Amino acid sequence: MKGDITILADSGIRNGLDVVRMIALGADSVLLGRAYLYALATHGKQGVANLLNLIEKEMKVAMTLTGAKVSVKSAVIRWCRTPKRCRPSMR
């Protein structure tokens, strides 16, 4: 089934370690709705930027500790270059 559909992980994602766990379990992407909204509501645009930086740092630590060889930034760039991703759907 992997490859035929896009698997999105949602619910209970609180930090970068949770993001790495979901991807390791097979998710193609992870949704961060609640954390993003809390950061926006409490600290505005800068709060969201701080949250994303923190999650990236936590992901780097988790990936280093598990021996992953892929950088977070290159993984995101590669994901966005995949057809049908990072573009609005016309359905």
Structure description:
GO terms for molecular function: L-lactate dehydrogenase (cytochrome) activity; L-lactate dehydrogenase (NAD+) activity. Its EC number is 1.1.2.3. The chain is mostly helical and 91 residues long. It has one domain (8-81). It is built from three helices and two strands. A two-stranded parallel sheet has the order 1-2. Helix 1 (16-24) packs across helix 2. The longest helix has 34 residues, at 33-66. The radius of gyration is 14 Å and the shape is globular. The chain starts with 7 loop residues before the first strand and ends in a 10-residue tail after the last helix.
List the helices and strands and how they pair.
Elements: E1 8-9, H1 16-24, E2 29-30, H2 33-66, H3 72-81
Parallel strand pairs: 1-2
